[in-house]
Amino acid sequence: MRYNTSHGMSRVIIYHNPKCGTSRNTLAMIRATGEDPKVIEYLQTPPTREELAELIQQMGIAIKDVLRKKGTPYERLNLDDPKWTDDQLLDFMMEHPILINRPIVVTSKGIKLCRPSESVLSILEHPLPGPFTKEDGAIIQ
What we know:
Helix content is about 25%, strand content about 15%. By secondary structure, it is α+β, with helices and mostly antiparallel strands. A 4-stranded mixed β-sheet has the order 2-1-3-4, sandwiched between helices. A two-stranded antiparallel sheet has the order 5-6. It has helices at about 20-30, 50-60, 85-95, and strands at about 15, 40, 105, 110-115, 130-135, 140.
């Protein structure tokens, strides 16, 4: 399964956590460009193991680079131990979806873990129509 948004109703998919400021800023930037993304609140509707593995593979990053540390059982599970295989790390993310870093955005131009939030702009079809003010007051041009 290759992620391809050109055939669906929305050309943008965001794996979103509404409690996360970075995720909220990313979603707001997507909408500011005129896109109406498909929003997947991944803590309620996590991707399947196969979907997550495919997203990570298509992002071209290591599985460990998608692990969220802050506010998760990362330390308690000792996930920085090099003994864990990629398959085991995926299993942990399936058991504890909060370990999946966010937001992950899928567009026709690519798939990206959008941290910082403005990194989403490189995979959107349209630019921001003007300056964008993030929740922390930072302005993105």
